[in-house]
Amino acid sequence: MSSSPPAPMSGAELALRLLAAFRDLVDALHVELAEHGHSDARPLHGFALQAIGPDGATAVELGDRLGVSKQAAGKTVDALVDRGYARRDADPGDARRKIVTITPRGHEMLALSAEIFGRLRDARAAGIGDDMPAFERSLRALAPDLGSGLDSPGWFAR
């Protein structure tokens, strides 16, 4: 007796399953980050550190990159500074501006996150098996541009 293939997903189910997979991956990351001394890290912090980038950013630039207001970006910067992941420095070109840069602790968390994400990816690939390359090609086809991902915190709030 053969079973029929599952019915195609609805668009809503696809979106929810992608979101659930994202949440599961990020939650697993944060469990491991906590085990390595970063229990105070939150998902938003990773987005923010990526948005700050290697050259730093002002609160206005960070807000634009994250898709949030300058005030929300400022609160995020406060949290990053309080936790030791970022610092505020005077802009050498304009003393009225502050540049937010990533501290060694922030770089450590980003490097550790990349390592953990690699392990988590491998564990999921083991569960999917030979279908993983096709799955990854399909995801790349569905989302060819990763540039819009950093503004997800602001996008969720719209």
Compute the number of helices: 7
| Portion in helices | 55-70%
* Principal-axis shape: elongated
Largest sheet: 2 strands, antiparallel
Order of helices and strands: HHHHEEHHH
Q: What is the oligomer described by this structure?
A: single chain
Q: Tell me the distance between the termini.
A: 49 Å
The assigned CATH architecture of the domain at 39-138 is: Orthogonal Bundle
CATH superfamily of the domain at 39-138: Winged helix-like DNA-binding domain superfamily/Winged helix DNA-binding domain
Strand content: 5-15%
Describe, in plain words, how this protein is organized in 3D.
This protein has 158 residues and is mainly alpha-helical. It has helices spanning 11-35, 43-52, 59-66, 70-83, 104-128, 132-142, 152-157; strands spanning 86-91, 94-102. The protein has a domain at 39-138: Winged helix-like DNA-binding domain superfamily/Winged helix DNA-binding domain (Arc Repressor Mutant, subunit A, Orthogonal Bundle). The protein has 7 helices and 2 strands; from the N terminus they run ααααββααα. Strands 1-2 form a two-stranded antiparallel ribbon. A hairpin with a 2-residue loop joins strand 1 and strand 2 (94-102). The model has no long low-confidence stretch (mean pLDDT 90).
